[in-house]
Amino acid sequence: MNLGIIGLGKWATVLTKAAQKSSQMKIISAYSRSQESREKFTTQHQIPHVNSVQDLLNNKDIQGVILTVPNELHFEYAKLCADHGKHIYIEKPITNDLAEAIQLRDICVRAGVTVFIGHVAKLLSGVQLMHQEIQSGKLGEVCLIQGHFSNNRALFLTPNDWRWYQAKAPGGPLSQIAIHQFDVLRFLGGPVEEISAMASKKSPAGAEVEDQWTINLGFSNGALGSIVSSWTSPGVFEVRITGTKGLMHYRLDQTKWGEPELLHENASLTFQGTNSSLVEVVQYTLPQDNMFQSELELFARAIEGDKQELFDANYGIEILGMVEASRESAMQNSSKIHLKHFLSRK
Hints:
- By secondary structure, this protein is of the alpha/beta class.
- It contains 10 helices and 14 strands.
- It folds into 2 domains: about 1-120, 3-Layer(aba) Sandwich (Rossmann fold), CATH 3.40.50; about 120-295 and about 320-330, Dihydrodipicolinate Reductase, domain 2 (2-Layer Sandwich), CATH 3.30.360.10.
- The chain has helices at about 10-20, 35-45, 55, 75-85, 100-110, 125-135, 175-190, 290-305, 315-330, 340-345, and strands spanning about 1-5, 25-30, 65, 85-90, 115-120, 140-150, 190-200, 210-220, 225-230, 235-245, 245-250, 270-275, 280-285, 335-340.
- The strands form 2 sheets. A 9-stranded mixed β-sheet has the order 13-12-11-10-6-9-8-7-14. Strands 2-1-3-4-5 form a 5-stranded parallel β-sheet, with helices on both faces.
- The two termini are about 35 Å apart.
């Protein structure tokens, strides 16, 4: 599968390294608006670049395009790809707002191209093992799922960073990292019925965006969930599931998020039975894996016609809907937002 890549910043390097480990795809062309970024990327990865986006999109050998541009450019570049008949991988979120996301889905349906959203966190080995244990019945009936994803980005934001601005990074960590936990909790708990949220600004940097979030979820099956996300914190990624038969807890070293082959080294996944003590906790062995390689291989399969419903445009719209519903709730004194009704209004 021949791919192009547009947007050649830090995350382009992460995904390019993942693609180069796979025999299922090859990135053959790259583009950035910055000449310096183009030249640096070619030197680093030995992948030729072009000097205009049209040159990349007019290449008939390219079947799909990886987009790692800033969020506010997702719609613009995805539409260009669709207009040229190229299948599209978009780093999360699908677009910067729901109206654009719904419009993009319809454009791509008419163009007959696949849209694949990079909701990668559910492919983490620990999350996959949690899902397997839910399916096996080991946890009993799932009652509560808690997710936490935080880092210290807000302490270093300046007006030169696009994440400073609400229009470009709505809700700060909400749309940038908490969105990964919306994906994980949706994967583990099923459809979400209701959302309520609170937010605040605590960083001394003074950015437009909030930097602290707590979100409560009510799943359609009656289970409850919560997500905590801070941008003034050490790197944290963890998930807890409480069921009628036990509790599972997954933690990893968030500072290694961009180095997936190392994530298993300082990660832990444990199970504690409902009637057991802390000293009886069972420790799982986590395998080495690469969630970014796995998702790009799923993208390649999607191009070949294998439906990927946990990564498609409808799924991306649902996850982005949780982000926007959280923002609306926070602006309405933490009122409950019915997600299905909220989405139907868009």
